[in-house]
Amino acid sequence: MSNLKIESLTSNSLSHYRTQHHFERVGEINSVDDLQKYCNWAKENKVNVYIIGNGSNTLFVRKNIQSLILKNKLPKYTNPLPENRLEVSSSVSVMEVLKYCYQNSMNSFYYLASVPATIGGALAMNAGRGRQHECTIYDFVESVTFFEDGCVKTLQNSQIARDYRETIFTGMHSKLILSAVFKFERTEFTENPLISRQIWAKEHQDNTAPNCGSVFKTANYRILQKLRGMSIGKAMFSTKTSNWILSKSQNSYSIIILIKIAKIFHFLTRQKIALELITID
User: Fold this and answer.
1) In a 3-state reduction of DSSP, which class is residue 143?
2) Predicted local distance difference test score (pLDDT) of residue 140
3) Contact yes or no for 118/176 (Cβ under 8 A)
4) Given 15, 104, 113, 153, which residue has the most CB atoms within 10 angstroms?
5) What angle do CA 96, 213, 270 make, to 5 degrees?
6) Type and span of the H or E element at 122
């Protein structure tokens, strides 16, 4: 693999849970050629591939991670286009785009100002508000460009199949979102929407310990309410924010047990439950 490097690494910085793991194989994607070479190597060596932006929805399961972990290090750029459009690379943070929109008096997905995600991650997970609001980042997407099977492809908004917290890119690590074109509308603000969202987040979200935000994309909230405050070791269901698990542990075992408890309660009451977190081993 010329010009590519796979290293082993012990770190607690690849997931927002800040759990520490030994990663047998870690590489960086600086170009689409890098991804193709890494994928070829993984296929030849029968190793799973996981592309990570900043780990805001990632739960590493085991102490030793065997998957090939690829960091998205594609060059960052935001290119203004005519008619209030903006081309953004996948490695740019959501907050960077929102600051641009506010400074240029544009409507945008300001409800994601409290989400520590990259644009690529937000697009892959169809990030948005809760089910009752039916608002997502794709309300502003014109097209998405991605790399798959050795080719760069572009899909228009209407061509991208998606559901709640899910798209054709979710968990598909042979596909790498490269960039997206957004279309915004001009607007006037009576208050700063970024500050308003930060105030909302302080009131409604719980960042008193490391966490990855929402744990389940589908769950019965009556059950989750009853689990508030339940703790195993140094991990616990938040007493403030339903569907959040906080953890001060160096490993993920306690988090996994809490998830299993929630699944058991749902199984016994015949309720649907599905993870929003992406689990990697």
Assistant:
1) strand
2) 97
3) no
4) 15
5) 140
6) helix 119-124
Query: Using the 8-state DSSP alphabet, how is residue 139 labeled?
Result: G
- Which segments within the chain are labelled E, that is strand? 7-11, 21-29, 49-52, 58-60, 64-72, 78-81, 85-89, 141-148, 151-156, 162-163, 166-167, 176-183, 216-218, 231-232, 235-237, 245-247, 274-275, 278-280
| C-beta neighbour count of 229 within 10 angstroms | 10
Taking the C-alpha atoms of residue 120 and residue 41, their distance in angstroms, rounded to an integer, is 23
pLDDT at 58 over 90: yes
CA distances from 129 to 114, 137, 141, 146, 165 (A): 11, 9, 16, 24, 10
What DSSP letter does each residue of 197-248 carry, written as one string? HHHHHHHH---SS---SB-EEE--HHHHHHTTT-EETTEEE-SSSTTBEEE-
In 3D space, the residue among 155, 164, 274 whose CA is nearest the CA of residue 219 turns out to be 274
Quote the crossing angle between the two packed helices 94-103 and 193-204, to the nearest 10°.
Answer: 140
57: tokens are: 């929805």
Q: Using the predicted structure, report yes or no on whether residue 47 has a pLDDT greater than 80.
A: yes
Q: Decide if pLDDT at 278 tops 60.
A: yes
For residue 150, the model assigns a pLDDT of: 82
183 in Cβ contact with 85 (< 8 Å): yes
What span, in angstroms and rounded, lies between the C-alpha atoms of 249 and 29? Answer: 29
The pLDDT tens digits for 95-123 are 999 999 999 999 999 999 998 889 999 99
pLDDT tens digits along 227-271: 999 999 999 999 999 999 999 999 999 999 999 999 999 999 999
Predicted pLDDT at 1: 47
